[in-house]
Amino acid sequence: MTDSVQEGEVRRAAPHTRRRFLTVSGAAMALAFGTNLASRDTAEAVAVNLRSDPFTLGVASGDPLPTAVVLWTRLAPEIFDPMGGMPDKTFEVQWQVATDERFRHVVRAGSATARPEYRHSVHVDARGLEPGREYFYRFRSANHLSPTGRTKTAPERRASALRFGIASCQAYPDGYYTAYRHLVEEDLDVLLFLGDYLYENAVNTVAGDRFDTSANVPDVFQTSPVTLDQYRLFYSLYKADPDLQAGHAALPWIVTWDDHEVVDNYAGAVKGAIPTEDFLVQRANAYRAYWEHMPLRTEQLPEGPDAKLYRRFDFGDLMQVSVLDTRQYRNASPSPTITGEEQMNWLLDGLGESRARWNVIANQVMMAEQRTTLTDPPRLNVDAWDGFTEDRRRLFDGIVEREVEGVCVVTGDTHTNYANDLRQNFADANSRTVGVEFVGTSISSGRDGFDTSPQLDLQLQANPNTKFVNGQRGYVTFEVNRDQMRADYRVLPYVTQPGAPVSTRTSFVVERAEPSLKDV
Amino acid sequence: MTHLTSARRTWYVPAVLVAALAVFMAAPAYASAPGHGKPPREPAVQVSIGSPELDIATGQCAGAPITVQLTNPGEQAVYADATLSAPDDLVLQRTMISTYLPAGYTAKVSVPVMAPLETEPGTYPVKVSAGRSTATASIAVTATAPDPSGNLARSASKVSASSVHSGYPLCGAVDGDTDSEHWGTTGWNDGNSTIWPDWFELQWNQPQTVGRVALHTLNSTRYPVARYGLKDWDVQTLVDGQWKTIASVRGNSQGVVDTTFEPVQTNALRVLLLAGNGANDYSRIVELQAFAS
């Protein structure tokens, strides 16, 4: 395949969307997804000089398969410009994958086209790699070279051990992303990001509680985003953070969203009194900006307000990860659902067919029942699975019926660490345990946090299936082998100042043969 | 081999690999959508402006918004970009609007327009374009008249602060509304509790004579000054590039504090806010006024 052939396909696919400045980018526009071979001739033929470094938003990799991984970057020499400081032209971006950090052994290379319709983001599906192997990658555009990223492919067939992490909830104005400085030292194979990557909340001139008087965050961030240009600018602000860039550059991420990537507590097509027609336009804008800025494949590219983000990953026969989207398909009627019918069927089918030792469900909002009062009846958080008990019953019954083993749910959302046993019926203390749930705290949301509080103590008392609560910032790491999983809750004492240390607040182990939480 | 002069590293692609590469382009999910291969002739996105004639006065806080409407008259959804441009005499909050537009849908986007104090009175165009469709708003700019009470803050060329809390904009503290009961629709609140000092600053293009500053801090029935108001601050003027304190207020318990001092000629004045009276530990100014005497 040559560049000219690819360009030809683009034109056939969308002849009415030729690029004119300020014209319409057609919905059927082909993708910023170049995967052609790099030959020196074509690379030099299209090289255009950029006056300043276009790699201001870093590099990322994600969605690892045994022989492929997505490599991401975006050309944006000016982060606060709606075009990223780029001309309304396509740019060629070369990429390389090597087995060594100095790129002496380049094993794959190619050229991708960065298109203005996607704000010069680049999503390369680098294929033909070896399973379970560490790689290094980088990009080049004109005379600029990107930072080097490290990534890792998933193992294939039999695998004996794996390390992964979970992270979520990174409100930029709530504090620094110091957690990633520590996470990159953990030697993880993959990070599952469980939602609230970006918050729609306004950011003030000094970046909120970061209180950085040199930040000079522009006025445009003082209103919440609604249109695509606004969501893009919020991603530029977030992704310019050096700690977040370090996190992305260190390992592949598998991302999913929760609500704040669009707006707080939306459910499907509903957000308060906003007319559905208008809200779906906002959701389309938010989803598009999300895809542009994440290491995702074209299968996840939104078509307007619809995007298929739920998907599955296999890490050999050791671990399967089912990534959920519990926002897009929420519906209150006819019967309340958090997953939607299709996704629930997909989830149950996948769990039923899984041959993996461990079945991880990458989830957004708490799945375990969580009573927030000691009253009878208790108060529950209806934005979480507690508001969708029929879906929870269907999932748990389905796990039991299919005899699914090694079920481990990982969750974000609450800015709080929890560890829960998942009971088939929470009302019955003798009910069987269908799996465990590790809820990870936030990277920054909620500001400095606290070890415990009267409310968290009360929840421990009200929820016998909850074995641990903690309100500090941080992330959770997991070490998985064929029979046992270990979870370490890594916490930071503060985030409104940079430089916090990290420590392990507590750890649990789970035996595959008997899925319940055990103290280490 | 290509050498990168900017990066001091070498970009090296072994020639043997080029032939061995096997990388494929995933087919776009919608490549098989109806109409593919025989695309209909889509009507272009149309732009219009909701209120094409707008009157504003000069000054950072005297602007008003235009409503840009983007309509997709076609039968296929599109992602549209529109750009906004204006003469340098005007300031636009945004120069681009990008949005998804379902078939037949009109997006309405409010865009604030401001004329700096030095803008000559007159009529100025704001042009909005999407493809070949354009629309123009006509912005009639009048000069902000001097405040009849002599409040120089109302004719400041620039207002700024250490930080701004969303929902409590800068301009709320120089909008002429001194009534604390209107808190929430008037007044400035800094962006960060517990972090001090804060500051709120007025700048003028021409030197002004200032001999009195009136600071209206929050003091309403619901939010009394004893809990919500400012407690300690300095009044400062800029002299040879340095802030010089010309008056200090300590232990304040009043809603309105008049500070008089020997009149000075200055291009900039600020209140350096040192402490509040407690609740949530924020700075809150309902109105800041400056007078010759």
From TrEMBL, chain A:
It holds the Pfam family PhoD_N. Transmembrane segments: none annotated. Residues 57-153 form the Phospholipase D N-terminal domain. PROSITE patterns: TAT (PS51318). It comes from the Bacteria. Residues 164-489 form the PhoD-like phosphatase metallophosphatase domain. InterPro entries: Metallo-depent_PP-like (IPR029052), PhoD-like_MPP (IPR018946), PhoD-like_sf (IPR038607), PhoD_N (IPR032093), Phospholipid_Metab_Enz (IPR052900), TAT_signal (IPR006311). PANTHER family: ALKALINE PHOSPHATASE FAMILY PROTEIN (AFU_ORTHOLOGUE AFUA_5G03860), PHOSPHATASE, PUTATIVE (AFU_ORTHOLOGUE AFUA_6G08710)-RELATED. This is Alkaline phosphatase. It comes from Nonomuraea terrae. The lineage of its organism: Bacteria, Bacillati, Actinomycetota, Actinomycetes, Streptosporangiales.
From TrEMBL, chain B:
Residues 1-31 form the signal peptide. SUPFAM superfamilies: Galactose-binding domain-like. Keywords: Signal. GO terms for biological process: carbohydrate metabolic process. It comes from the Bacteria. Transmembrane segments: none annotated. It holds the Pfam family F5_F8_type_C. The keyword Signal applies. Residues 145-293 form the F5/8 type C domain. This is F5/8 type C domain-containing protein.
